[in-house]
Structures are given as C-alpha cells and as structure tokens.
Amino acid sequence: MTAYHRPRSLDEALAIRAETGALPLAGGTDIHPLRTARAAWGEPWTMPVLDLSAVPGLDGIEEDATGWRIGARTSWTAIAEAALPPLFDGLRAAAREVGGRQVQNRGTIAGNLVTASPAGDGIPNLLALEAEVELASRDATRRLPVAEFVTGYRATALAPEEIVTALHVPRLDHARGRFEKLGARRYLVISIAMAAAVIAMEGDRVAEARIAIGACSPVARRLPALEAALVGQHPSEMASVPQPAHLTPLAPIDDIRATAAYRTDAALVLLRDLLAGFTA
Amino acid sequence: MIALTVNGTRHDVAADPFAPLSDTLREGLGLTGTKEGCNAGDCGACTVLMDGAQVCACLVSTAQAEGAEITTIEAADPLLDRLRAAFLARGAAQCGICTPGMLMAALDLLRRDVAPDRAAVEDALGGVLCRCTGYLQIADAVLDAARGTVIAAPADGRVGAAIPRLDGAPKVAGTELYGADDAPEDALWLRVVRSPHAHARFTLGDLDGARHRLGLFAILSARDVPGLNGFGIMPNLKDQPVFADGYVRYRGEAVLGLLGDRDVVAAVRDADLPITWEILPALHGVEAALTPDAPQLHDHAPGNILVRGHLRTGDAEPAFANAAARAGGTFRTAFVEHAYIEPEAGHAIPGEGGAMTILACTQAPVMDREETARVLGVAEEAVRIVPTACGGGFGGKLDVSVQPLLAVAARVANRPVRMTYTRTESMAASTKRHPAILYARMAADPKGRFTAFMLDGDFNTGAYASWGLTVANRVPVHASGPYRVPNVLNRTRAVYTNDTPAGAFRGFGVPQAAIATEALVDDLAIALGIDRWEIRRRNALGKGDVTPSGQVLHASAGLPDCLDALKPEWEAALARVAAHNTKHARHRLGAGIACMWYGCGNTALSNPSTMRISLARDGTLTLFNGAVDIGQGSTTVIGQIAADALGLPLSSLRQVLGDTALTPDAGKTSASRQTFVSGRAAAEAAKALRARILALANAGDGATLALDGTLLTVRDSHTTRVIDLAALDADLVAEARYDPPTVPLDADSQGVPYATYGFAAQLALVRVDTALGTVKVEEIVVAQDVGRAVNPLLVAGQIHGGVAQGLGLALMEEFIPGRTENLHDYLIPTAGDMPAIRIHLIEDPEPEGPFGAKGVGEPALVPTAPAILSAIRHATGVRMTEVPLLPHRLLGRLGGGEPPPAPLPSLSVGD
Ligand SMILES: Cc1cc2nc3c(=O)[nH]c(=O)nc-3n(C[C@H](O)[C@H](O)[C@H](O)COP(=O)(O)OP(=O)(O)OC[C@H]3O[C@@H](n4cnc5c(N)ncnc54)[C@H](O)[C@@H]3O)c2cc1C
Ligand code: FES
Ligand code: FES
Prior knowledge:
The complex is a heterodimer of chains A (280) and B (911).
Chain A: E1 4-5, H1 10-20, E2 23-25, H2 31-40, E3 49-51, E4 61-63, E5 67-71, H3 76-81, H4 89-95, H5 101-106, H6 109-115, H7 122-128, E6 132-136, E7 141-145, H8 146-149, E8 150-152, E9 155-156, E10 163-170, E11 175-182, E12 193-202, E13 205-214, E14 221-222, H9 224-230, H10 260-276
Parallel strand pairs in A: 1-3, 2-3
Antiparallel strand pairs in A: 4-5, 5-10, 6-7, 6-10, 8-9, 11-12, 12-13, 13-14
Chain B: E1 2-6, E2 9-13, H1 21-28, E3 47-50, E4 53-56, E5 69-71, H2 78-90, H3 99-112, H4 118-125, H5 136-147, H6 169-173, E6 188-194, E7 200-204, H7 207-214, E8 218-220, E9 247-248, E10 254-260, H8 262-267, E11 275-279, H9 286-290, E12 305-313, H10 316-321, E13 325-332, E14 345-350, E15 356-360, H11 365-376, E16 383-387, H12 402-413, E17 417-420, H13 423-429, E18 436-444, E19 450-462, H14 468-478, E20 487-496, H15 510-528, H16 532-539, H17 559-583, E21 587-599, E22 609-615, E23 621-625, H18 634-646, E24 653-657, H19 674-697, E25 704-708, E26 711-715, E27 720-724, E28 732-738, E29 757-769, E30 774-785, H20 792-811, E31 836-842, H21 864-876, H22 887-894, H23 905-908
Parallel strand pairs in B: 1-5, 6-17, 15-16, 19-20, 23-24, 30-31
Antiparallel strand pairs in B: 1-2, 3-4, 3-5, 6-10, 7-9, 7-11, 8-10, 12-20, 13-18, 14-15, 14-17, 18-19, 21-29, 22-23, 22-28, 25-26, 26-27, 29-30
Helix pairs in contact in B: 2-3, 2-5, 3-4, 4-5, 11-12, 15-16, 15-21, 18-19, 20-21
Bound molecules: flavin-adenine dinucleotide and FE2/S2 (inorganic) cluster (2 copies).
One FE2/S2 (inorganic) cluster (FES) binds at residues 22, 36-39, 41-46, 56, 58 of chain B.
C-alpha cells in the first residue's frame, strides 16, 4: 500500500509535500489512469500520494479589481457553469470538451496544467488569457506566467516542495474568448489539434489578439506574428488573416492520431474557423 | 477504516485509501453492480453519482469518497426505476455491461434537466461507451423516461412480437453477474505476466526463490501445465501455449502466472521476476512475414503461411480480357479490437478426482470444455463450464482466454482461483479482426452485368492460428459480393506474424472483403455511367440464381427486395446531396450504397445444435437452452420460437441456460447461427413435445393448449381434454438436433457452403469537412432480409450495433500492438458519433429456418463501412482504399487543405 495523505489544511499539505515529496492528487483523472497503465505491464504504483481534496480554499472562482482567481482544484464543470464574462468563453468551451461529463466533474484546471500534456485543452486557453500560476510552498508563494510554468513535454517549473494553489487571470476589457477542438470522434477524445483565442476590441477594430495552438508542439504555443497581424482588423476580416507563415512557432509530430503535415494544415483551418466564429 | 455513504447507508470499510472507489464498492462492499471496463476513465462503465454528479468511480480514490453521498445502480429511486423500465422497453440493454453506467449517467441528467432534448442526452451519455447497441435505443429510452412515455410491451411473446428481452431485468437492476462479479471467498488471485516483446526467447531463473521472496502462493509456468500446453480453434492445431515455453511470438503472450493474495500479486514488479529475455527481430505485418528470408514462426507453416483458401468458377482471365469495363485496386484494413466493455474474467473451482468447474464469460462453452480438458489432461466430462453473463463478445470470446489459465492454477493450488483481465491485457492478449491486404479486380459487360471477379487476399492472422482458417475459407466464398458473377477466382492466405493473434470478429473477413468489392462495383458504375444503385440491382443475387460456389439459391434471397426498399430513399438522398453541394464548397454531402451477403453457420462444416424441452409433472415447462446469450438476444428469441412452436405462452416457459452439465450442446454463439440453427432445434423439440401432447389428448393439429398449474387443457374444434400432468408416469420430454444441410466444398470451393444466407443493402449519407478531412455520418438506411423477424426490437438492436461497429471500422478503429492498447487511444464510436438509422426489414422466409428466420447479427455490420466509403467518394471524388479513414488520411488524399477535386460527374446524380 502506498502512503496516502489527505490533509485538512494547506499548511499541513505543504508540510507533507516538503517532507515526503508526495505527488499532489486533485481530481485523479490523470493519476488514476497512469496508475492503471503502469500496472498493466507489471509496474505497481509506489509513489506516496498527497490528496488535496480535503484542503479548504483551493476551489472556487473569485473576482477582484485586477481580475479573477481560479482555485487550483476548480473542476471543469464548475468553470463551465460559473458566471464569467465573455473573456472566458474559450476556457468554458474547453471545459465542456475535456473528456466526458464524468471527467469534467472531477478533473481540475491545475491538474490539467501540471500534467502539461501537449494535448491538454486547458493550456492554450490559459495562454490566451495570460494567466499566472500561483505556487505555494512551506516557505513562500510565487507567481509565474503559464507560458513560463510549462517548460516542455509534460514538464513544468513546479518545484518538488510546491503545490499550485490558484490561477490568476488579469482583466481585459471588451474581450471575448473562443476555442476550437479537433478530434477523431465526438466525445471522450484527445485533441489532434486545438486553437484558443482571446480578442479584445476597441470600437469595431481588434485592439489586442492572443492566439494559442495546442497539440502541435511539445508545449502549446502562442502565435505572435498572427496576433500582430490581427491588430487593427475588423472582425469580419479576421478569418482571412492566418497564413502558413504564422505557424512557425509550431513543431507538430506524427503520432497515432495524425501526421505532422496534417496537424499543420488543420491548425490553419482551425485558426480560420476560430476567428470566423467571433462574428457568428 | 473509511466511512462511505452509499445509497443512503453508511459503511465502514477497510480499504486502501488510494484504491479506486469502484474497486472498494465491488470488492469491499460487494456492490458489483458498478462495472469496471478499463479503470482509466475511458469507458464509463463504473459511473456512479457522487453528491449527485456523475463520476467515474475508477478515478475517485476511496478516501475522496469519504463524506460524500454515493449513488450506485443498486439504489432504490423512483426516477431510476422509470429509467430502468424505459431501458427494458426500448431494448437499451443488450449485453448489459454498460447499462449500470448508462443508467447512472442518465439519472444525473434527469435530475439536472427534466426535459432534455436529444443533444443533451448525448452530452450526458457521451462518457459511457456501449459496444452493443449503437446508443440509439439508449437515447430513446432516456427521452422516454424523461417524458414519462415508456412504451408498453406487447401482450404476448409469439414469434414476431417486439417483446423486451427476457433476461433484461437483472441487467437494469445491476444484479446480473458477469465474469468478474462473483467468486468464492477463499479464491486466490491469478495475475498473468505477459511478454512485453513481440518476438523473443527467454529463460527462467529461480522461480521458487522468487515465490518465497515475493510471498506468492505459486509462480506458474509452462512446466505446470498438466496436459497439453496448447490450445486453438483448429481441431488438429493447438498452436498457442497456455504459458509460453521459452519462446514468445507476440507482445502480450502469457509467460508466468502469479498466484496468491490479491495485494501480493498486484504488488509484484514484473522486472523483479527471474526472466531473462533475448529479443528477436519481429515480423510485423504480412509483408514482413512473407519475405523470403523471414524467420519461420511455426514448424508447421513454411513461409509463415498458415492456410490458403481458394474458389474458382468459370474462367476469370479471359472474361476480364473481353469485358467492357474493368476495375481494380489494392485495399488495406487495420487490426480491429472487439472492445467488449467486459474484459475477460472468471474463476475456477477444482473438484474431486480431476474435476474442474469454470465460471467465466464465453461464447462457446462446449469448446471451452474441450480445450480446458485437454490442457488439464482429463476427460471432457471432468470439466464443467458454467457461462456467466457475458458483457459482449462479437467473436472475441469464442477462443478460450482465462479458462485454461484458471484451470491450471486451480489444479496446482487445489483451491478456487479467480482472475480478471485488465483492459490493456484484454486488448494486448486477445484476438482481433484480421488486417487484410486485398488485391481485387472486377469486370462488367456494357450493360453493367458483372462478368468476372478476382481477389488475392492476405490476412494477418498474427502469432497464432485461432480462426485464421475460417477467415481464409469464408472470404473466397463471399468476396464477389451478393451478385451474379459467372467467372470468379479468389485466393486467400492467412499469414503468421509477430502481431496479436487475429481470430473471429463479426463477419470473419467478409467485412474487409466487402470494402474492396463494393468500391470496385462503384468503379464499374462510374466507368459505364450507370447509377450505383442501378448496377447493384441489375446484378443482385435472387431466388434461382447460382452463387460462385455453384449453389442454387432456392429460397430466401431477398437482396432485390432490399434494394427496391431503398430506391426512394436513394433518389431522395442523391437529390439532397446535389442541392446541398451546389451551395457549399467546404462541407460536402455524399450518398453511398453497399450490399452484402453472409452465410449463416460454419462454412461447409457440420455445426449442429441440440435443444431439449420438458413439461414436468409439476407443471413446469423448461427449455434446456445451451446457446449463450452474449447480448444478441438468443435467450429471448429461442424462447419465443420454442413457446410459439409448442403453443403455450412464453410466460410459462422457464429456461435452463448454457451450462455444460445441464444443457445439451447448442454450439457456439458465432457465425449468426443461434437464431437459425439453435432456433430451429428449439422449434423441432417444441413441435415434438406438442405432438406428444396432442397424441395423449387425441387432439388434432390445430388444437390449442393452456397450462394452469399441473392441468394442461387441450382444445380442438371437437373436444376439450384436460391432462393432469401430475398423474403422468413421467415428465414429457422432447429433444431435437438440427444441423443445417451443407455439401462439402471441393478444391475450387464448389458445393453448398451454407444452408442459408442473410442479405442486406445500406445507404449512407455523410457530411465531409473537406478542409479538415473529418466525416460525420448523418444517416444510415438499412434494408435487411432476415427471413423472419422473430423479435423486431432485438433485430433493430443488432442492426444498430452492427452499424456502429461498421462506422468504427470505416472511420476510427485501429489497433496497433503496443500503441493503442487502451480505450483512450483506441477509439470506438460514442453516443455522439451515431447517425440516424432507418430500417426496412425484408422478410423472405427461409424454409430451413424456424418460422422462416435466419441470422441477423453479423450481416448488419458488413455493408456499413463500404457504404460510408462510397458516400465519402460521392462527396469528395476521392476513392479511399485504406481504413480507418482518419482525418489525416482523408485530407492527405484531398490535397492537404486545398479545395477538393471536383466530384466525378457520373457520381453526382443518377445516370
Ligand atoms: C477519459 C479521460 C478523458 C480525458 N480527456 C481530456 C481531454 O479531452 N482534454 C484534456 O485536456 N484532458 C483530458 N483528460 C485528462 C484530465 O482529465 C485533465 O488533464 C484534468 O484536468 C486533470 O485534472 P485532475 O485534477 O484530475 O488531475 P490529477 O490526476 O489529480 O493530477 C494531474 C497532475 O497534476 C498534478 N496536480 C494536480 N493538482 C495539483 C496542484 N494543485 N498542485 C500541484 N500539482 C497538482 C498531479 O500531481 C498530477 O501530476 C482526460 C482524462 C480522462 C480520464
Ligand atoms: S472502468 Fe471506470 S471508466 Fe472504465
Ligand atoms: S449493452 Fe452496452 S456494452 Fe453491451
């Protein structure tokens, strides 16, 4: 039996994390499948587990003058159902596309981020929202932009004694988010590619555009050249802006779900659809 | 101790806090209604409500459930009862393994939303996979329950009545016991260590030392097999070892068995076992196995060829030379996984003097008995097979899986032993649909009449023979399709490789062949400027026609009727497509059509069924029915047939099912044979019993029977006689055996391979996103000749399920050993992927069949993939030759995001 800790306070959780290095567990929708996959080929689970589900203060969404604080343990369903401004429309759409309803009820936003799968549906949205990760350890708390937190394929800047306590999303006026996901079936499907955008308007022109693509590189990537090209456009023109050259930050691979070449083509189509959707 | 509140009751349970809640519910609290199909969140079988919201119990740590209200299928709840009733009435539970999860997901929905629409239902059920039903009847049931419009069952269960399945109640209650749901308290657990290598030699070190060190009861290996260390379907070729003996031929092959307490066997790291591997280069795919310098994998198979199949009629080459139109191509299909939601599971109980009882999920209890007895080295009579409820099979549970392993372990331990495959183990170790490479050619005369067909087909049978022979023999007989073709030359090979063994899967190679053949039929239609429906109608096999095997179809050949039934919808579909596509460049519609035929029963081999029926002196009427109902509905259908043939109501018939100690041999549940063969045997047994009753009562043929307690009333136009069964000397018993008449095939496959054939045609309407290469199947219209629909509700369920599997075959399913070994990466259709389905049942009675019926199960799957491919071609102009047609494959052919090539003119509308 592996050591299993289920502390009732954050301090206690941070102490256990510091002393044992136990693996944080939130919704378990990544960890339990991982355990099953390993056991199937004779590798039993041995890592100690730090269950965060009884720690108060880690879920829920709060708003203040600067923006929103989304508790680390906030589930996809809670995000989908929260009263949030259109800025969050992309994240909320993603919340309805992660797995099926069962996974959405359990899976959390921080779990998705820390897993740091290239196909994590939350991550491009968090990039487009310019979210920051709030990290706590026994000795300190710090904040890191999501873009710096996710460092590589399934790799993050989470220190061994840290846990994620929240995500912070700064305010952006007159902004709306969107999300497009492409998979080989309707439900319960890992993305072949996905695209997230946040577009802020000034009058009838784009004032700021933030665009990110997932599952087309080891880490979801923003597309700065495309973002720059979108500024000043009328929404009805946006869909014609994306061009192959805008995709240079991406480095798609061949895998069981698709080829690299397909991902490049699909990313462009998704971007155009994503932007066209703003006028719908 | 962890305190759980389940269905309102508090339990204190000693459980590992990290153990999945599903496991604690099942093993800790005995609440086995919650099923486990994957333990990874992918199948939803374990869905329960946690504080009212649906969750996968396999993803919740037991500790996390403390303090929450857990609701499981065992709950007493009026809304749940309404859902249960609606599921029964709609046929929404077939095998029933997904049913508890579906019901919980539906309960979650109806508590949130009292008036959901269809899209909301699909959203709510999207996380639960069903492999049997195709979801439509499930969604209908949820909508019925929401609206309070549960349909009433027909009053009587005569042949033709769409009654709910007889064995449905425990499935919706969650009390049905599947392979993993029951075992003696003192059973040891068996976990099999499997080869992670596709091709390797190995040596075993000090197993005894390892056993001590790891605290195991035993470590089993090849040396522990008391009888023959081999099993297999072919009578004289037991080529697959129970435990590999120093040499493995595929990833997933059993090497060792760890026997002991559950926690102990689970805690063993395979890497800590004394196995030394010498990895050998592996032969993946038939091309690798057929190269001249490929190593020979089995002594008996030079060139790695297990078996060849052959059919010749007429003279194909000259017919090609003289044809007005010719078509040809190379087609490829992938390994397809059965993906039954219930992984293989069961337990064994050793008895005195070599006796062994095995309770496990299976499609073929009598074959299991033969195989197990041989492995144990005991007489068949010493082995008893008691099939548990079977959570889906589709051919994959025809071969033994857990049975010989359990038997060897229980023999060694002399104690009960249980085991449950993990999902990955099930996928890595069990058989698959044969991947095929098909080189096919077809020719027609100027009027579009087919003149010649040729096929060379290589089927990857994997590491072991399994059903490779059956596939190699069935395909040549069927490959030219349900058409009149005078000159045919078909050659097939089943080839050994180092891939997962391929075996039986709904259709035995015919679905693969149909993909090639139907594409060529479209080619010929295009070349000759003939409408695709029309060319099929002109060539359709009908009554009096001769098959390529030289068999005259004397009766029940309803393909022309099937096609005629589709004609109006075909024309409407073409018009709709044409109208849409003039306006839309990116999202294009396409209509496709395909036909199929399928011989019911074994190919030119005896495959009898025996049924026994008794009317006892205590008034009980019992059918001893050895046919295993794997969800397809044989218990209900055979019951309906027996009761109707006897002339007593179905409600008075009790059944004793598929236990080799209690029921006569009804053969295996495969090849769409149970309704036809076992149904006929049941009808004959019932008729014989009826004849005895009528003789006792001196009554005429038309007499009616009524049973009340022990009093049997026989009434004809003249008299009424009452027989007191209690006063008879003996129970009234009748038994009948039926073996469908076939004639052995000669070297050219000439003969009568099957007593009857199912026929069908399907129309597909698809929407293709030509920018992304994605396909949405919008509609499938089915016209199927079933001879006689004994139970139209169950027939519809079989058709929906077949269509779903055909859709998966066409668009998404690809098993790659080592890469898609779970239901996360191996995709099967979900509730949101299904088209609307309309069904035209054609009833061209089969004189050999009971009440005219013949097989239904497999035929429904065969035409779906070719019809979808035909529709995609109509939409895009692209003829696809490889399935599954994943988005990247289609887009690759469409030219990488560029506008698609203009559809071929002859494909747009009619001719
Ligand atoms: C059937 C199925 C389908 C899925 N489909 C999708 C999909 O479509 N798209 C998608 O993006 N994902 C999908 N997932 C993955 C998963 O559901 C999501 O990534 C989910 O958001 C993970 O959250 P969790 O709380 O369940 O993570 P957990 O499993 O609890 O944890 C995941 C990782 O995050 C770490 N972690 C969690 N919380 C913290 C914290 N507060 N501080 C530090 N570390 C933490 C854990 O240590 C672990 O490494 C699917 C999963 C399943 C089982
Ligand atoms: S067993 Fe839980 S989702 Fe499959
Ligand atoms: S009835 Fe759904 S899996 Fe069998």
